[in-house]
User: Which sequence fits this backbone?
């Protein structure tokens, strides 16, 4: 299968590398010049727990990919949420009528963006528990294992989605076909909607947040707002299950010492965040359904205020 990875950062590098090892034709697309240059000069370095491999994978900027490239079978979307539309505008030339898009982004509201570029029957949505990091340009650190859950947005897309399942199985990516991936996306959004914004504003890691006396009240309130908006969209969230999933991350032996991605983007690197696609999306959807979401609204505004103070780009 000919596969383009739109957003070849840490996770894109991991998935692209594993699909390449399984014999697929993989093209990486990214905007980071140093990352592109390093992979072109030295190959993509994948540092696994038991081995380090180097793969010579083609990588292009979105502007370069349109010149001389035919349509691909599958585009795996792994950009930052706020970069999704710009990426697909730039790579639209390689998306044909039979091209499918598999969206693995965190957050909510991506269906509306992708529907501008491909038919709904050609969209697959999913979530993943795989992790990845970058030690530097062109150097991915790949620790642990995980799985990928996916489901076609429209019934007509199921046959191709099952082909993707087979391809991902051969690559060792542990895919799972879901009958309700939207529930999983909302559940994961609850985790991001509590830990990302709160750890960023409070300047703490996950374990430090979990140790606070008011942590339970904060996550219950925010997840409550997620649940009532999800219900308006036809998703019945199990709030107790979502709270349990958040609190399971506090353990210092697992994720507790981790600083969430939003913290790393804003506090460490002064980059703009994905808050509009997490708490901000709940706030916006709440306005649509005339549902009050004061905690999500306030947290969204606080994060944007911090972006301004840090002159985030």
Assistant:
């Amino acid at each position: 299968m000919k596969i383009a990875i739109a957003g070849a950062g840490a996770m894109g590098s991991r998935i692209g590398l594993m699909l390449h090892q399984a014999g697929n034709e993989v093209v990486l697309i990214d905007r980071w010049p140093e990352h592109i240059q390093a992979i072109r000069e030295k190959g993509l370095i994948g540092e696994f727990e038991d081995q380090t491999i180097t793969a010579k994978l083609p990588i292009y900027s979105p502007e370069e990919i349109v010149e001389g490239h035919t349509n691909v079978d599958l585009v795996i979307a792994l950009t930052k949420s706020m970069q999704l539309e710009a990426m697909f505008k730039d790579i639209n030339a390689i998306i044909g009528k039979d091209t499918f898009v598999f969206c693995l982004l965190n957050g909510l509201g991506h269906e509306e963006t992708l529907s501008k570029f491909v038919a709904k029957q050609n969209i697959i949505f999913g979530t993943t528990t795989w992790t990845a990091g970058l030690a530097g340009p062109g150097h991915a650190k790949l620790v642990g294992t995980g799985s990928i859950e996916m489901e076609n947005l429209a019934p007509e897309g199921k046959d191709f989605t099952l082909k993707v399942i087979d391809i991902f199985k051969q690559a060792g990516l542990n895919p799972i076909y879901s009958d309700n991936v939207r529930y999983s996306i909302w559940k994961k959004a609850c985790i991001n909607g509590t830990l990302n914004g709160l750890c960023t504003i409070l300047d703490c890691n996950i374990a430090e947040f979990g140790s606070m006396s008011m942590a339970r009240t904060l996550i219950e309130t925010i997840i409550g707002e997620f649940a009532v908006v999800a219900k308006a969209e036809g998703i019945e969230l199990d709030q107790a299950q979502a709270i349990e999933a958040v609190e399971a991350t506090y353990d210092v032996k697992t994720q507790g010492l981790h600083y969430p991605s939003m913290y790393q983007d804003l506090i460490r690197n002064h980059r703009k965040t994905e808050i509009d696609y997490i708490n901000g999306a709940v706030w916006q959807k709440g306005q649509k359904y005339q549902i009050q979401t004061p905690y999500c609204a306030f947290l969204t505004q606080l994060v944007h205020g911090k972006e301004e103070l840090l002159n985030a780009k």
Summary: The radius of gyration is 19 Å. The chain has two domains: 2-177, 181-309.
